[in-house]
Amino acid sequence: MKKIVLLFSMILMLTLAACSAPVEEPGFEAEKINVYTRDTSSGTRDGFMRGIGFADASADDSVLVAGFITADNNAIMSAMATDKSGVGYVSLSSVNNTIKALKFEGVEANEANVLNDTYKLKRPFVFMRRVDGDYVNDTEYQLTLAFIAYVASNDGADVIANAGATATAGTGTWASQVANFPVCASDNSAVTLKFGGSDSVQKIAEALSAAFSPACGNVKTENDHTGSSDGFKRVQGGEKDGVNYKHIGYSSRFFRDAELSGPETTRTQMAWDAIVAIVHKDNPVTDLTGEQLTKIYKGEYTLWGDVITD
Amino acid sequence: MVKRKVRLSEILLNSSVFLSTTLSALALGLIFFYVIREGTTLLNWELFTGNYHSRNYIAEFQDEQLQNYDMPDLSKVENVYPVDRFGIVLQEDIDLAGNGVVRVYYVHPDSPFNKMISKEVGTEEVDLDVGMIFQRISYVNHPTSLSRGGAQKFATELSDPQREVYELFFSDLGGGIKGSIITTIYLIFMTLIIAVPFGVLTAIYFNEFAPSNWITKTMRSFIETLTGVPSIIYGLLGITVFVPLTVRFTPAVNSNLIAGALTLSVIILPTIIRTTEESLRVVPDDHRAASLALGANKTQTTFKVVLPQASPGIITATFLGIGRVIGESAALIFVLGAAIKDTVNIYEPSTSLAVHIWSMMTDEPANIALSSTIAILILAIVLVINLSVKIGVKLLTRKGM
What we know:
heterodimer, A: D-Maltodextrin-Binding Protein, domain 2, D-Maltodextrin-Binding Protein, domain 2, ten-stranded mixed beta sheet, two-stranded parallel ribbon, 33% helix, 19% strand, B: Pdz3 Domain, MetI-like fold, 2 domains, 9 strands, 57% helix
């Protein structure tokens, strides 16, 4: 009896040894990809999904692979700092050394590459003003025009860069242009310019307002940011004569076809915001293409091995 | 066998009671822990009294004499960077909202920064004070120094003798929540002034005067339903009714504090009616009968006998209302706007503390630290309110007995 037991256990041990020998420690290739995304109201998500060529997913969660949907940039950042097999995306201004920023189509995300248009994964910061003749008085009209010229000037570009976005090239210093706007030579502290629209440009918009005020007769400014769609609605759309009307409406995406009713001259692009795909620091991947990202977000690639061997 | 089964289910029931309690306590404790851990870094008195919008200045040098100034001893201070050629010291710091800034740590009395020409309309001279923030400095034929690059880079670029300063852009320290605190206080008082009298009188009607028929019953159940209606629906009511109404009859031109207070009044009205009515109901009928027997009429009985006894309930209702006002955000974004103000005017839009959190969280990147600090403030206010309700009710009931 004892011999039989011994024999059996020996056979068992041998088979175990035989089985375990060829199987390696599961490497990174076998790690499942954990997908993180922002919610559908996010301008960053819209920019990212359009940028990677997966526009269907910009406002629809059902086409995405099951993953983590979060309403917060910081949540994605902290998730990438801890989740070794996660992938997500944030605005370039949020990137820090707790995570690893990936190249997109082989191009590194930085200011120079955004401006020379080699880095394609980006979204625009645009704004529109009220149409001509739709102002309470001429002072407000002139001040609005002066603001737009200020944003386009070198000074405006500096303010935008200082607030974390990549400004389109400046048109010269404000000091050299201010003479074109005689309204800025008078005291405007009794006038309030109202700004609204996208809340992801709030910080930049507030910085622009604060910088513009002393440059143009200390005009008062009011920034009330409630989302990109209000950028059109409260300036040229259905709410333009309502109680929450604005002089300037910002948007963190290009204005949609339905929002293009006003003349071309009322719309301006002021900056680019680069969006960066991010992963955990220990992740060996350094570069992803739009196609790979699309496959990851669609759920066609489920393991990191699929990406690496691709 | 049967006995054992009963015991098992009892054990299950008991253990689930304990388990749920532990889980609830843990969840609530974790919220407190998280908020306090994230928020304490920014917690200081200046945040509560400081302006959100910083006053910006534009200036240029009167004459840019280059000399070396005797600088203070900086060996014991961290993160400071002297600029010898202008006699100033810059410091890497954060503003009240926790954003990185380049702050002025020291200005030499003879520094050209102490006699600059303002480039604004109406002001002649301006000087740089300790504690101010540099936004940027532009140079002739050189790229502008931006505060984003940090104090060290800023100081190095400013020290470069090749660079001739063209314009200087600096500001006060910003990021405070003073305006939002004031707005919240305004909202609380205006809302209570409107809602409490209406609510209490309505409750008196329902409990003392209303005939007991189906109309009363239907109205009562409507009011009960209203306590559970999401506040965003009241926000719609506010923007379609109260905002146009206030624009029509007051100097206001768009969303404003009065409309906000009116909307909040409607939100807390059902709560006040319900709570007051509960406390009126528990006043013993003997007291009413006694009062009537002594010759008092119905009105005198209601207002002199019943109402004083119900006052603890009315106070509870008031404080519940205050809690609701402090916590409300969705409806207020419609009727009050999300514009953060420093000087609050009841005819203009502004932001309450809860909406301030919303604004900070929708920003990119979201400012979690400041949001948590405001959350600590709100929690503290709610705690104080709860304690004062308890103490107030205790004092009142002792007096009444």
